[in-house]
């Protein structure tokens, strides 16, 4: 599983430290995540010859979340910027006793860092059925299950 676009999380957006893109995302954090993900995906090809009985699948959650943030309404979301819950002072986890949104299925992020269940469901569906190598590599989970 790839790193998510961490520069687009509510926590990163609230920090106001670095260069932002037109969606308010921290470009440096996203570039770091993208670099990590590229190396992680390449490890699938490196490990397979060393462990021939293994079957690894790289799931690009970064792409799924990035696409949702770029066009939230295309997947039924209305808020790709704000956390569903009231976050504590450091802006990551929900504040104890704090308020939560009325409908978390409309939010991309539940707290300052983590995607909502609705986003995770889209990632899981994608991992299971996508045939695009830039989304799952080298095979999807549906094909992996058939191997066993």
Structure commentary:
- With 148 residues, the chain is mainly α.
- It is built from five helices and four strands, in the order H-H-E-H-E-E-H-E-H.
- The longest helix is centred in the N-terminal third of the chain and has 24 residues, at 27-50.
- Belongs to the 'GDSL' lipolytic enzyme family.
- It is found in: Secreted.
- Keywords: Hydrolase, Lipid degradation, Lipid metabolism, Secreted, Signal.
- GO terms for molecular function: hydrolase activity, acting on ester bonds.
Structural class: mainly alpha
What coarse outline follows from CA principal-axis ratios?
A: globular
> What Rg is obtained from the alpha carbons, in whole angstroms?
17 Å
Please describe the biggest sheet, giving its number of strands, its sense, and whether it closes into a barrel: 2 strands, antiparallel
Question: In percent, how much strand structure appears in the residues?
Answer: 5-15%
Q: How many alpha or pi helices?
A: 5
GO molecular function, one term: hydrolase activity, acting on ester bonds
Family: Belongs to the 'GDSL' lipolytic enzyme family.
Keywords: Hydrolase, Lipid degradation, Lipid metabolism, Secreted, Signal
Subcellular location: Secreted
């Amino acid at each position: 599983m790839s790193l998510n676009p961490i520069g687009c999380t509510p926590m990163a957006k609230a920090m106001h430290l670095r260069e932002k893109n037109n969606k308010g995302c921290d470009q440096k954090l996203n570039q770091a995540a993208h670099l990590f993900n590229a190396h992680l995906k390449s490890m699938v090809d490196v490990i397979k010859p060393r462990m021939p009985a293994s079957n690894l699948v790289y799931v690009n959650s970064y792409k799924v979340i990035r696409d949702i943030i770029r066009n939230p309404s295309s997947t039924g979301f209305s808020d790709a910027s704000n956390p569903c819950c009231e976050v504590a002072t450091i802006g990551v986890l929900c504040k104890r006793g704090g308020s939560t949104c009325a409908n978390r299925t409309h939010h991309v992020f539940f707290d300052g860092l983590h995607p909502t269940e609705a986003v995770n469901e889209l990632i899981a569906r994608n991992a299971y059925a996508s045939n695009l190598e830039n989304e799952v590599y080298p095979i999807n989970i549906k094909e992996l299950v058939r191997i066993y």
